[in-house]
Write a structure and sequence with these properties.
13 strands; alpha/beta; binds S-adenosylmethionine; two-stranded antiparallel ribbon
Length: 382
């Protein structure tokens, strides 16, 4: 290990021994610097800068149809790909090289052609696959684009509402979550709730609060044609999109969407109330939970889907926790702080904090019924 001492510094400190407000100088001895660790950290950062830029490149490839044109097409030259997508060859060539350097496409130096491997093709083009990724990148890019306002908000402590974000956050959120709901909601999460599927099959009344673009609401409506659904969200723009999606999904006759905050939602006697990845975004989750308690039929169920998280910070210091703490800093915490109460649970609240919220609202039964690497699913009942 090569090491060299870093510079000795002098800092001003206030000690308890001194009168209030008085400061004294203290010489701080330098910690030995491990040059190798410093170098490793810098090279790791090079990788991360490449990854940060790649968020924009993936969204670009998705919006321009580059991945879809590559999928199953064998090996293509930049000119081939540009011709198939109506794009400019010089941009496409540079984009392909960035994709090849990141392992997203394969490059053959002998022919100068590029191939999208089948696994990447699924992850980057198949919207029906649980591995589908472009929405994840789109919401990440949208969050980064809006980050100057978060930097400003962090100075003042004020919030930034979900409705104040750009299109990529709203649409990216829908496209990020939908594959997971497609894979788990009807097959695993609803059956894990006590007696709920039987009610849905007979014909139940369901409210999906904080529904965003309504991906979860529409999926449930398609699976349970005897039931009726209300989706609500405080963001009017999301509700407008949800109504369009319900028309496209053929369920507009059984799904009503309304603009309402969860705490002010007006319905009653629901057999099932659901919240997908939104309780922690709310300023007053306890108020919203009380409203759910009031809105449920006596034997009704509240299903809460939250980001996967352990209760302690150290439980979440892993790749999923890293991504979620990132979203939490840029989206979820400011969203909650922008609303009344501003509890700011954060996207990594964990089961114990969610239980506190649920029990504070009067629910007596609370349990975790399912989990994936990305989500925890809870059941709450009176
Ligand atoms: C991360 S998005 C999840 C959207 C949707 N549930 C999904 O799974 O795609 C969080 C949603 O919570 C909504 N939201 C935040 N605070 C709310 C509140 N107090 N009442 C109702 N909706 C709220 C936002 O508008 C946003 O649509």
């Amino acid at each position: 290990m090569r090491s060299r001492p870093s510079r000795r510094t002098i800092e001003l400190v206030t000690t308890n021994d001194l009168e209030e407000g008085k400061e004294m100088a203290r010489v701080v001895e330098p910690a030995a610097l491990d040059e190798q660790k410093l170098e490793q950290f810098v090279f790791r950062a090079v990788d991360e800068v490449g990854a940060a830029l790649n968020a924009a490149l993936v969204v670009m490839g998705d919006k321009l149809g580059l991945y879809r044109a590559l999928a199953g097409a064998g090996s293509l030259s930049p000119a081939d790909l540009a011709a198939r997508t109506g794009t400019a060859e010089r941009y496409v060539r540079e984009w392909l090289n960035a994709q090849a350097a990141g392992g997203y496409v394969d490059y053959d130096p002998a022919t100068g052609r590029y191939t999208l491997p089948p696994e990447q093709a699924v992850a980057l083009t198949d919207e029906a696959s649980p591995a589908y990724l472009p929405g994840f990148f789109q919401i990440a890019l949208g969050s980064v684009l809006d980050s100057p306002r978060i930097t400003q908000a962090a100075r003042s402590g004020e919030g930034l509402g979900w409705h104040e974000h750009g299109h990529d956050v709203h649409e990216g959120c829908e496209r990020f979550f939908r594959p997971g709901y497609n894979a788990n909601l009807v097959s695993t999460w609803l059956p894990a709730l006590d007696g709920v599927v039987a009610k849905l099959e007979r014909g139940a009344r369901v409210a999906d609060l904080g529904c965003g673009h309504g991906a979860s609401t529409i999926l449930m409506a398609q699976a349970f044609p005897q039931s009726t659904f209300v989706g609500s969200d405080y963001h009017e723009g999301s509700i407008d999109t949800a109504r369009t999606r319900a028309e496209q999904g053929g369920v507009a006759d059984r799904v009503r969407f309304e603009t309402a905050s969860a705490a002010a939602h007006s319905g009653r006697d629901y057999d099932l109330v659901t919240m997908f990845d939104c309780l922690h975004d709310m300023g007053d989750p306890v108020g919203a939970a009380r409203r759910v308690h009031h809105a449920l039929a006596p034997d009704g169920t509240w299903m809460i889907v939250e980001p996967a998280a352990g209760d302690r910070v150290e439980d979440n210091l892993n790749p999923v926790g890293r991504a979620y703490y990132g979203f939490s800093t840029l989206l979820c915490t400011p969203a909650s702080l922008s609303q009344e109460v501003g509890l700011a649970l954060g996207a990594q609240a964990g089961e114990a904090r969610i239980r506190e919220v649920v029990e504070a609202a009067g629910f007596t039964r609370f349990r975790r019924v399912a989990e994936t690497p990305f989500n925890l699913v809870f059941e709450a009942r009176s």
